[in-house]
Amino acid sequence: MTDPVELDVSGAGSGARLYRQSIAGCLDARIGTHGLDSRTLAAWLDKTAAPLAKLKAAHADGSLPLLRLTREEADIVAAEAALAKLSVGAKMIVFLGMGGSSLGGQALAQLGGWNIPGSADVEQRKRPRTRFYDNLDASTLALAFKDVDLATTRFVITSKSGGTPETLVQAAAALQAVDAAGLGGRSAELFLGITEPTRPGVRNGLRDLLTSRGIPVLDHPTAIGGRYSALTVVGLIPAISRGLDPRALRAGADAVLQQALSASDPSASAPAVGAALAVALAREKATKVMVFMSYADRLQRLGAWYVQLWAESLGKGGQGTTPLACLGPLDQHSQLQLFMDGPREHALTVLRVKNAESGPVIDPKLAKLAGLDVMAGRSVAELVSAQAQAVPEALNRAGRPVRTIDIEQLDAATLGGLMMHFMIETILAGWLMDLDPFDQPAVELAKVLTRERLSR
Length: 456
Known about the structure:
Shape: globular
CATH superfamily of the largest domain: Glucose-6-phosphate isomerase like protein, domain 1
Strand content: 5-15%
C-alpha cells in the first residue's frame, strides 16, 4: 500500500511534477480528534477499491467515454478548424450556454487571461476578445448586442441536448439581433453551434434552429454530460480561442487518468485518495461543506466549475456535501472567520501555485511609511505565498481539516490534470456513496414546471 498522505502527480512523458496532494492536514496527527485516524482512513481507502476497479473496467470496455477522451485527436482537429474559420474577421467571440456548457470553457479561458484585468499581452491582443453569457437575465440580454459591432462579433452556442430553454432564448435573441443589423445573410459565418448529433425520434431545437440558417454545428459527445465536458470540444473551443494548447490539456488529464488506472490500490491515486477522504470526513466527522480555495486569479472559475461538478453529481437522495468556491487572499477577508471559528462542518481544499513571477517589489521607504516593515524589499508573490502557507496552518491549529494541492507550474497540462483529478474524484465519491454521479433527476422537475408555466 502506498502512503496516501503525500502524492505527486507527474506529467505524461516529461516526468515533471504537475502537482502534489497532501491530506496531512485532515488527519488526527495534525488536528487532533477532529481529523481522521490512520485506521479509519485505511478502512475508507479499502472501500474505495471497488469504485476504482469499476473505473478501470469502464475504461477497459469503453463504457465511460470520458476515460477514452484524453488520447483522441480527431475532435481537436475539428475544433481547431471550426474556430479558425469562425475567427476570420472577428474582433470578439461570444459564448452562449448554461452550466456545464459554459463553466468548463470559462475555467480554461481564464488560464489564457480571460476575465483577468490587464493580462492581455501582445499575442493576446491579436486574438478576438472573449465574452461568456452563462446566465439568463432580461436586462443583461437586452444590452448584450447593443455595445458590440455585430459584423465583427462571432457566436458559439452550446447545449448538449439542444433543448435547454435558456440557451435557445439566447440563440434566438442573437439571431434576431444579427437580422436587425442586416447581417442575417451572413449567419453561417457568424455562428457556430455545439450540440448532440441528430437521433431518430429525439428533437434537438438548437440543431434545427442553426441548420435552418446553414450554420455549422460540431457534435457534442452523447455519452459525456455537460459538467464532465470541459475537455471535449465544449471546452476546447474557448481554450483554443485564448491560445491554450489543447493537446497539452489532454496530456495533463491523461497523466492523472493513467495514475488512477495503474494504481495497485486507491492509496496510489490522488483522486481516489481525495474521494475516500471526502466521504470519510462527511460520514465520520459530519463535514457538510467542501470549500475549494485557490490562491491564483486564474483558478477562480475553476472553483465555479468544481462547484457544479460536485453539487450536481453528488447531491442526491439526501446525500452529498455543499461545495463552496473561494479565492485567496480575497476570501480570507470575508469567509475565513467562519471556517476558523464557526461550526465544525467545513473541510477545505487549498490550491497553491508556485509563482513564476514575483510581481512588484515593495520599496522599503514606502513599506516603512505604511507601517508594513515586513514587506520592505519583498515581492507581492512572497506575501501571497506566506498567506497560502499560514492560512492552512492556522486552520489546522483550530482543528479544521485542510487538504493542500501544490501546483508546480500553472499551465495547460496542469489545468487539464486538475480537471481530470476532480472529475475522477467526483465519480469515485459518487460510487462510494452508492449514487449515480452522472444523472441529475431533481433538476428535470424544475424544467418541466417552467415549461408548464409558460404554456398557460
